[in-house]
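Hi, does anyone understand the following?
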Amino acid sequence: MSLVEHNPALLRPGALAPAGTPAPATTVPGGPAFADVMRGRHAVRFSSHALQRAERRRIDLGPVTLARLSDGVERAAGKGARASVVFVDSTAFVVSVPNRTVITAVDREHMKQQVFTNIDSAVIA
């Protein structure tokens, strides 16, 4: 048996794959709908640091806030942003836009002492 794995996509049409090559993957009926997959792709995640900050500062992370935050991140992504501050009411969320990950969250009380660095955009959501 050959130690080299063969990629079936690289075989010329009509050529047979070497013996022992697994069949190509097929779609599984009953899997998630395309719209559900795309919706999940745009969901905003929180780093453990951001979750700790939000909990300690009692920052609201309800569905309305998360929807507005997600919308702000999508708008930043549409403009090609990499790192953004997204303001939702009196809270600032520092977000890694390509990863859709909130890095930290700052409420109004703590914002007076904050300096945001390495940010290429700001969004008011």
